[in-house]
Amino acid sequence: MKNKKVLVTGGLGFIGSHTVVALQQQGVEVVIIDNLSNSSIDVLGGITEITGQTPEFENIDLRDKSAVKIFFEKYPEIDSVIHFAASKAVGESVEKPLLYYENNISSLIYLLQELQKKEHSHFIFSSSCTVYGQADELPITENAPVKKAESPYGNTKQIGEEIIQDTCKVNSNMKAISLRYFNPIGAHASAEIGELPLGTPQNLVPFITQTAIGKREKLSVFGNDYPTEDGTAIRDYIHVVDIAEAHVTALQRLMNGKEKSNYEVFNLGTGKGNSVLEVIQSFEKSTGEKLPYEISPRRHGDVTAAYADTEKANKELGWKASRSLDEALKSAWVWQKVVQKKEREEEQ
């Protein structure tokens, strides 16, 4: 993969930035497209600090079809894309469905239209375990039925996968992999990059770290009446660096011609579920911080439990999550302290 130029869309976001680092550490040249709608240009500095090289950056809105076309004319050598750029807040998607359909679907279509013009192309899609809904069986395998989506966000992931699959059916020169993530958490060990939610966090771990540092009064645990051991919902929490490395492995699979068909799907998880209360206990243990929390009513659309069967990714992709929950939470806490310090310095 060395000396290969790869496009990473949404490359300044949480998972995107960690993947850019993982690619650059393998000697891959990266071009990032990001419109900074849910990210910060400062992340570019963090990537440079870790890897010693600055990826090329293009501030483009992928909903602009002509801008996408012009990009590929400028970089004709690019035929490999890792596609993260998408809106991803479930609640917001319920309130603004058209925004989500336009942003998440049209951008995907415009990228694929450019790639299908090429002699060969590789496409890695950032999908989600939300496509499974409340699965009938646990752990969840890739063969589990895709359920009717609980939100427009979830629906854009389902539709996105279908669009890629249909495109690959009629384009044998295009090879694609959809990676269905479970719950990415943590930050790079350098604390140069991490999760930077704008406004109130939608995910558990940034809410935990913001509460522990005093930014939030207390953490709300949504529901303690689930049919689980401690009554709280169970999820598969996976370190973001493990997820980033999976993208590199998936791209290598396509470039080396190791794929079994030109469209494949893999789950990315640890294979283990942790309840919300277990996550809180792990955070307190690994950081020494006490966390104030209260039990709140369940949120609409939250499933009881979801964790991955990782056998296919482990055996076929040759990838396995290697970092622990404690390690991920500790890295998220170190990152939160760095963010807080920067915010204080900016205020002064």
Automatic annotation (TrEMBL):
<dbReference type="InterPro" id="IPR036291">
    <property type="entry name" value="NAD(P)-bd_dom_sf"/>
</dbReference>
<dbReference type="GO" id="GO:0005829">
    <property type="term" value="C:cytosol"/>
</dbReference>
<keyword id="KW-0520">NAD</keyword>
<dbReference type="Pfam" id="PF16363">
    <property type="entry name" value="GDP_Man_Dehyd"/>
</dbReference>
<keyword id="KW-0119">Carbohydrate metabolism</keyword>
<protein>
    <recommendedName>
        <fullName>UDP-glucose 4-epimerase</fullName>
        <ecNumber>5.1.3.2</ecNumber>
    </recommendedName>
</protein>
<dbReference type="GO" id="GO:0006012">
    <property type="term" value="P:galactose metabolic process"/>
</dbReference>
<comment type="subunit">
    <text>Homodimer.</text>
</comment>
<dbReference type="InterPro" id="IPR016040">
    <property type="entry name" value="NAD(P)-bd_dom"/>
</dbReference>
<comment type="pathway">
    <text>Carbohydrate metabolism; galactose metabolism.</text>
</comment>
<dbReference type="GO" id="GO:0003978">
    <property type="term" value="F:UDP-glucose 4-epimerase activity"/>
</dbReference>
<keyword id="KW-0413">Isomerase</keyword>
<dbReference type="InterPro" id="IPR005886">
    <property type="entry name" value="UDP_G4E"/>
</dbReference>
<comment type="similarity">
    <text>Belongs to the NAD(P)-dependent epimerase/dehydratase family.</text>
</comment>
